[in-house]
Amino acid sequence: MQDNQMTSEEIVDRYFLEHRAKVLDIAAFLDRIDRSGSKEKDFRIIALLKCIDELQSGDENRTKRILELLSDHSVEPIDIASTKGASGAPPTS
Amino acid sequence: MMAYIDPHIHMVSRTTDDYQRMAQAGCVAITEPAFWAGFDRSSSQGFFDYFRQLTDTEPKRAATYGIKHHCWLCINPKEAEDVGFAREVISIIPEFLDCPTVLGIGEIGLNKNSKNELIILEEQLALAESTNQLVLVHTPHLEDKLKGTNLIMDAIDNTSLDPTRVLIDHVEEHTIKSVLDRGFWAGMTLYPDSKCTPQRAADCIEMYGTERLWINSAGDWGPSDPLAVPKCRLELASRGHSEELINTISFGNPLDFLSKSGKFSIS
Ligand SMILES: [Zn+2]
Q1: Which of A41, B13, B48, B128 lies in disulfide reach of B221, CB 3.0 to 4.6 Å?
Q2: Nearest C-alpha of chain A: how many angstroms from B37?
Q3: Model-level pTM greater than 0.90?
């Protein structure tokens, strides 16, 4: 395969601040939902929190594992497409 | 400046400023698949006009900026739930297939993975089979992608289509390996909020190599970036990848796949 030419230190130097900001965005997003006062957790937020747990479990293929957590794992075509959009998380996760 | 090809972009939704910026960034050719316009057309005549725009108007607009324009024709999966309507649209495709800039059938595929979408996908695969066309495949969004990609690959396996003449687009980390392992070409779409970012696409190239793989912007009327391909090239260069690798993923590979149509040219 094609090796990335950067050392791990160079990778951290280059991308750390960008991803630090992304973690803060997630934290602020969750705080914003809490401040709205709703007790019920949206299925998408439940899925997002599962993804955050997944980040910490094991070292390999985090991106693939998270995409799989966010996927519909049924195999048969559905009867009718009643909407065009996708929500980003499987409805029953 | 190295030339590049953006093999999937919806220029009918973009401005001439975008053409100019793409040309300035090194774009020499694009291919434009037929897709959903953001609303449902009210008649098959709407598609006839759209196909004229793709085969006649858009190549002229692109030529102003020295960019070669080719296209793919189909009814997209978002308008395929009404099977009767979809069949009307399919019936007008053959008269356009001889146009010198039409490269094949696309972007066909699935959206919500419904039974009717699958029927219309199969009928368009049959059209590609009987007319010996290349195929460009759209895979579903977000939670529907994994299931849809598998259903699509199974449907293609049930035809006599050669997988090396089919490109399955919008792959991500959970679908790229199975698409490549089953012999298809794969496309990574560089989007700001969904699909792949330029950084993740560069990661996939590092993990899976460049064989049978291309990158595209899929720029359209939604959040998207018509300069995503040069941004990914920059990302690869900044990580120390060779000019050869960058050229392969953003020029050589699209040239190889598109040339199988016998109609693609950059001059
Ligand atoms: Zn598209």
Answers
A1: B13
A2: 13
A3: yes
